[in-house]
Amino acid sequence: MAVPPRVLLGISTVATVVAIGSTYALTPGPAEEPAARAERNYANLPPDDFGGPATLTPSPSISPSASPSASSSRSTTPSASPSPRKSATGSAKPNRSGGDRHSGQGPRTGEPLGSPPPGPRPPGSGGTGVPPKKELRVHRGDLVIKTAGKVVEGVEVHGRIRVEAPNVTIRDTVVIVPTGSETFGISNNNDHGAGMLISNVEVRAANAAPGVNGVVGHDFTLEGSEIHHVTDQVHITGSNVTVRDNWFHDNYHVENDPYQGGGASHDDSIQIIGGGNITIAGNRFTGAYNAGVQITQSISDVDGVTIRDNLLGGGGCTVNIAEKGRGPVGGIVIRDNRFLSDQRIDGCAIIHPSTTKVTHSGNVWDDTGRPVALSRG
Q1: How far apart are CA 106 and CA 377, in angstroms?
Q2: What is the CA 58 to chain-centroid distance, rounded?
Q3: Domains present along the chain, CATH in parentheses
């Protein structure tokens, strides 16, 4: 008996998606324990939720008032990846009509938009990071900030910044994360660093290496910054986070990542593993292999995420929502975003489990202005 062409298309599509990786939540994976982990230790995160484990060696508190230097290495370019990034796969002519192209994955829904969302173009080269002609003093080694209200300004840090006090501001600063640290550039991922503000900062790895990440933590605002040549640019571990007007690009991707059991690295521009009251607005996303925004519930429930007014690209599916055995993700609003047409899964801008409700409107393809549809995984 002959198999109808529609059925063959559905089988082929599902097989392709499953082959790309289980992160996309298109097939059920092993359920995690429903209770949130009490420990916030970043090193204990499962490898699929982080580019690599962080080994945080206690270090003495260091004042950020480093002596001025006449030279600056801000133009340093990370070394080339040892394994070249895979080229995008899929149809040469992506579907931008908002219609259903994935008959094997269930229905897709979309809300039409009469015209593209108004407003300025998202940030990019020249509009983020440290202001031009800003003089920086060089500091070599980690900074551990333990003074409430401390302002770190105009520093080129060859190391990491760990914030362990409330209401710390880091601005007009470059952070060059040492190769081999398998950790973060800036972090307040503890019980003492709430209220951190990161403004007009650049974070990058000194050299391309698996597991080097950008900003990690909760209870912080990241604005006007540029983060690049790391695995994950932002890793959100809890509530009360605003990420606005930043440029995330050139994620480091390796096909044989030791932190993924030798498989491909899971690089995301932003990954949310727990928390709520999270706003992602006005950013530019390019260059992530796994997802532009990845939402999981790896350490606690996620409830209350707004993604708006961004230029979003990258990933197998650009916005990827997974429940991780904790039930529906709550309070997801995705509106007035433009999506680039560079997904590895053709036309997959937003994917979510059928049990998680996503409120979306005004989302369009950047190249055509046509409405974006949701994909259900």
Answers
A1: 8
A2: 27
A3: 39-64+94-376 (2.160.20)
Whole-angstrom Cα distance, residue 265 to residue 301? 24
- Could you give the CA distance from residue 289 to residue 263 in angstroms, rounded to a whole number? 13
Q: What is the pLDDT of residue 109?
A: 30
The answer to whether 43 touches 58, Cβ cutoff 8 Å, is: no
pLDDT per residue as tens digits for the range 184-242: 999 999 999 999 999 999 999 998 777 788 999 999 999 999 999 998 999 999 999 99
3-state secondary structure 282-336: CCEECCCCCEEEEECCCCCCEEEEEEECCEECCECCCEEECCCCCCCCEEEEEEC
Confidence grade of residue 261 (pLDDT, cut at 50, 70, 90): low
As a whole number of angstroms, the distance between CA 206 and CA 43 comes to 21
Average pLDDT over every residue of 300-326: 96
Return the exposure string of 201-238: e unless at least 16 CB atoms fall within 10 Å of the residue's CB, then b: bbbbbbbbbbbbbbbbbbbbbbbbbbbbbbbbbbbbbb
pTM greater than 0.90: no
Long-range contacts of 25-33 (CB under 8 A, 24+ apart): 25/320, 25/321, 25/322, 25/323, 25/351, 25/352, 25/353, 25/377, 26/105, 26/351, 26/377, 29/324, 30/325, 31/324, 31/325, 32/297, 32/298, 32/324, 32/325, 32/326, 33/325
